[in-house]
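Q: Could you fold this chain for me?
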Amino acid sequence: MTFAILFFVLAAAVAMDIRSRRIPNLLIAAGLAAGFLVQLITPAGNGPLFANVNADGIAASLCGIFVGFSALLPLYALRAMGAGDVKLMMTIGAFLGPLQTLGVVVLTFAAGGVLALAMALWQRSFRQLVLNLRFMLTTSAISAAGGSSPKFEPLQQTAGRMPYAVAIAAGTLLQLYLVRSGGWALS
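A: Sure. Below is the predicted structure, expressed as C-alpha cells.
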C-alpha cells in the first residue's frame, strides 16, 4: 500500500508538472500527510523498503524531509528548479526517511542530467546549454582563482525549462528498484 500511495503522488506530480509546469501545494500536503501516516502506523522494521529496523517513525519522516529540502534548496535559490520540485522531494523524504531520500537525490540528479540533455537535443537548444555550462564553469573558476567564492547568478538566456518532477520520479523509482534488488550502496 505504501508504494501505491507514493506512486500515485509521483504520477500526479509528473502529470501536473508536464501539463502546467507546477506541482500543486494540495498534492504536496496530501503526500506529506500520507508519508507521516505510513511512517506512524508501520511497525518497526517494516518500513517502506524494509531496509533498516530503526528507520521507521515520525523522526525518520522528519529527517527524510530535511534531507530532501536541504539537497534541493540550493538549486531553487539558483532558480534552477521550482519550489514544487523541492516540496516534492520533501514529500518523498516523508515516505522513505533520510538514507533512502539521499539515494533518491543522487539518482534524481543523474536522471535530471539525462533529461536535460534529451530536452536540449529535442528542443534544438543544445548549443545554448553548452554555452551556459561554459559560462558557469568559467565564472566560478575565475572567482575561485581570485580567492572568492563563486557567485552563481541567474542566466540571461536559458536552454529551456523542463518538468523536473519527471527526474524526481525516475530517481525515486530507480532507488526503490535498486534497494529491493540489493544492488545499491544507499540501502
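A (continued): The chain is about 70% helix and 0% strand.
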